Amino acid sequence: EIVLTQSPGTLSLSPGERGTLSCRASQSVTSSYLAWYQQKPGQAPRLLIYGASSRATGIPDRFSGSGSGTDFTLTISRLEPEDFAVYYCQQYGSSPYTFGQGTKVEIK
Amino acid sequence: QVQLVQSGSELKKPGASVKVSCKASGYAFTNYAMTWVRQAPGQGLEWMGWINTNTGNPTYVQGFTGRFVFSLDTSVSTAYLQISSLKAEDTAVYYCARVAPAVGFDPWGQGTLVTVSS
């Protein structure tokens, strides 16, 4: 089983700042099948990024993903008020598909 | 638009069973697998497994075998999650999501809160 470790656990930032979230895998992620999801309180997760770097339909271009192998990054270029949420990475290249523990992006 | 709509919250006693539904619309139901994800209160996301909507064959992740059953009714484009012999630790929000090949889980249902309490 591939273990995903996200860092930091909490990121305190102000609107307009840049946010950088990390996801490290215990072994290489097959075909860069790495996704990022956003979850707001009381809501279901929403797919942001798939294939490590492709934005899902309707996702603003301030969200970008990068990385390969075992190290992946989600970058939010300029935080908007609606971006404060919890973000999860997930690998879906090897069963069992696994999620990271999440990074909470909170308002500073 | 592609949409998954789940059944409402449930309050059950320990030892009872519950069946959560997930109705799909806006796409050909049997063209995509369906998956289930659990989120305990204040916790992260746990993948439970998936069901092939063509064959009805389910695959369960370790830890979700025995008491958890995935099923389908393709005539109404609906997937089901049944949990038997409920325990307090089954208290969680359960999500269904469509499995999009090479993309991941998209979209998700709104979630169903199952509370197990005496």
List the helices and strands and how they pair.
The complex is a heterodimer of chains A (108) and B (118).
Chain A lengths: L3 E4 L2 E4 L5 E7 L8 E6 L6 E5 L3 E2 L7 E6 L2 E6 L9 E6 L6 E2 L3 E5 L1
Chain B lengths: L2 E4 L3 E3 L5 E8 L7 E7 L6 E6 L6 E3 L7 E6 L4 E6 L8 E9 L3 E5 L3 E5 L2
Parallel strand pairs in B: 2-11
Antiparallel strand pairs in B: 1-3, 3-8, 4-5, 4-9, 5-6, 7-8, 9-10, 9-11
What would the keywords be for this entry?
heterodimer; A: 108 residues; mainly beta; four-stranded antiparallel sheet; 0% helix; 49% strand; B: 118 residues; seven-stranded mixed sheet; 53% strand; globular
Describe it for me?
The complex is a heterodimer of chains A (108) and B (118). Chain A contains no helices and eleven strands. By secondary structure, chain A is mainly beta. In chain A, strand 5 (46-50) and strand 6 (54-55) form a beta hairpin. The radius of gyration of chain A is 13 Å and the shape is globular. Chain B has 118 residues and is mostly beta strands. Chain B contains no helices and eleven strands. Chain B has strands at residues 3-6, 10-12, 18-25, 33-39, 46-51, 58-60, 68-73, 78-83, 92-100, 104-108, 112-116. In chain B, strands 2, 4, 5, 6, 9, 10 and 11 form a seven-stranded mixed sheet that branches. In chain B, strands 1-3-8-7 form a four-stranded antiparallel sheet, with no helix packed on it. In chain B, strand 4 and strand 5 (46-51) form a beta hairpin. Chain B is globular. The N and C termini of chain B lie far apart (40 Å). The mean pLDDT of chain B is 97. Classes of the chains: A mainly beta (108), B mainly beta (118). Chain A binds chain B through residues 31, 33, 35, 37, 43-47, 50-51, 56, 88, 90, 92, 95-102, and chain B through 37, 44-47, 59, 61-62, 95, 100, 102-111.
